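We store chain and fold; thus.
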Amino acid sequence: LPLEFQHASLWKIFKARTGPEAVVMTVPMGPFISEPLKAWILFKIIGLKTSVGMASVIMRSCFLVLAQCSLVVLLVLLSFGWLESLSPMVIKHEGLGYLLLLSAAALFALYCGFLLAASRSSVIKRLHNKLEHARFLWIRKVWESTENYFTELNEQFAFFSGERRSTVVIAYLLYIIPWIFQGAETYIILKFLGSEIPLLQALTIEAACGFLRSFAFIFPSGFVTYYSGHFLMLNVSGVAF
């Protein structure tokens, strides 16, 4: 959040987070609905300008994805041989390790590219020049009515990448922690149930299934992909059900 809003009530921020999360968990394609909803709720609860709130929400989503991709790449490299041994049973072909590694690396590069492009004022200017001379009148009218909003959004991204660059790096590193805890939670639950699965394998399974869930946004919270992936990978890993 902007510096002047960093002392906002924790309870208000909590409320702004829980509502949209319920949308993610219950509504198909929830992430596409919840992100603008968070910005609107931040405006209603703490008076944060919607363009600023949207920039903060987008940055947070980018941090989550970048942190997740980083962890997936690390864990896949550490357990590459084990993943390849599971590959014929999981995807019926060789190359599960390569698939996860390349997908995570590509998504990491895509989000980094988006953040770099969004932080440059020239992007908005170029987009403005193209849409200003668009063939269809309705496109020009839509752009004219929202131009100020997107300009402000671009300025916020530039502010993050410039004056608050250290904050961005710290936030990215901190967002790795929740993903690690999810894997640790899986390991503890499996140990409690009597499984002897190694910690690295539990972390890798959680990271891989969580990563695949990110692509299943059409389902509420990606439940179908997430739990079926868990079942399949744990089953071929020898974990009894």
